Amino acid sequence: MASTPSPSCLEQVRLPRWLLPGAWPTTNDGAPALARLSLERGRIVQVQPMRGAATPGTWDLHGTLALPGLVDAHTHLDKAFTLPRMKAVQPGLLGAIDAMLADRANWTPADVRARAERGLQWAWECGSTLVRTHVDWWEPESVPMAWTVMAELAREWRGRMKLEQVSLIKLSLFEDADQALRLARTCAETGPHARLGGFVHSTNFSEAALRHLFVAAQAFDLDVDLHVDEELNADALGLATTARLLRELGFEGRVVCGHTCALAAQEESEALATLDAVARAPITLVSLPATNLLLQDAVTGRTPRQRGLTLVKEARQRGIPLLFASDNVQDPFCRMGSFDPIEALGIGALVAQLDQPFDVWSQSVCRGDWLQRTPSAAPTLVGAPADLVLFPEADIHGWPSRTATRVVMRQGQAVRGLPPPHWTAKTAATAIATPSFS
């Protein structure tokens, strides 16, 4: 698209409530007052409530909804877009794993790169600024071909979009403590964008192996990202054991636990006790609604009875950082997907019956700090790059409906989508009622 001049200011912007300070003024109906964002050299230097009149010549967004750059906290770029070349896939998680293992025999670096680059381009176009991908790692003594490809892509995309990679290693490979250290060392040598990961499931569960994983991560100052309890087995122990081990070991890094579907199958008191323990640990939860809806309680010819979604509301009530993410895209684990975190949140909002998706839950696709060691206590746009996603056709009541059309800004310039003409027209100033503080 043709280059669009960079505005010095965005006015009448509707920001989500979670991104605004507590003293931010509200309108008569209790909604946050619209904002004025001042931009300078590709960064946001000031965020103020709108007062008086819109300034001619700036972008007047007329109340358009806006979010900071998106975060896709859990993807599988190495597997993406493989479904079209596969035959019938057996239902459920284990059937998808079998299909993927068969396809992996035909992977080449060029094949993995082409599919991953396609996924990254889609993520870029939808407005993501950070993507985290898991990479299958099945052999203890050799580095997966896809791991090397992702490391190359992380370097190539640096400055445009941050790519983090996680070693998805089956838990049994951590049974031997020395081998666990070797795996962690290899992961650490990849660079600061790498994380140590594992697949923790009732079919392979071993507390000793999980302990070795955390000890090895601690030894090499690595954060951890796990697939945990991706099943509807009420006896699954992965998340509860993770929370306990982190406390016993005094683990200093950040641990991300994806899926945790088993919480939804457990007795209420047991599930909530586990979440209480998670709230005291350095754990971030990631929910993957599309994949979990398709894989959990999956039987051919039978309508699923269980949703497979983890307890997102209960986690939020306890202050546990929680993100929604795309997970698999057009592979045997999920035939759908577009590497758009807003799409994942939209599915989650329906399945979990979430209230106020924009004002409350949109942070679950924006808070990249929740993946890091020290999450921010009070997120702010001030000082951040002017990487924004604007939704000119959506409204606060239906969001995230009508969000396919969006204007993506990178460092203050629109790089995807055209600003509507009425945003940029040099019209006379329009009076805006000064909101009152409440």
Overview of this structure, please?
By secondary structure, the chain is α/β, with parallel strands linked by helices. It folds into two domains: 9-67 and 382-424, Roll (Urease, subunit C, domain 1), CATH 2.30.40; 70-365, Metal-dependent hydrolases (TIM Barrel). The chain contains eleven helices and 15 strands. The protein has helices at residues 93-104, 109-126, 145-157, 177-190, 207-219, 238-249, 268-279, 289-295, 312-317, 341-351, 421-424, and strands at residues 9-14, 35-40, 43-49, 59-68, 70-75, 128-137, 162-170, 194-200, 224-228, 255-259, 283-287, 322-324, 388-391, 407-410, 413-416. It has an eight-stranded parallel β-sheet. The chain is globular and about 65 Å long. The model is unreliable at 427-438 (pLDDT under 50).
Helix content: 25-40%
Helix/strand structural class: alpha/beta
> Helix tally?
11
Low-confidence stretches at least 5 residues in length (pLDDT < 50)?
A: 427-438
Major sheet, described briefly? 8 strands, parallel
Q: Indicate how many domains the architecture comprises.
A: 2
Q: What is the arithmetic mean of pLDDT?
A: 93
CATH H level, superfamily name of the largest domain: Metal-dependent hydrolases
- So what's the oligomer here? single chain
- What general outline do the C-alpha atoms trace? globular
Radius of gyration: 22 Å
For this structure, the CATH topology of the largest domain is TIM Barrel
Could you give the count of β-strands?
A: 15
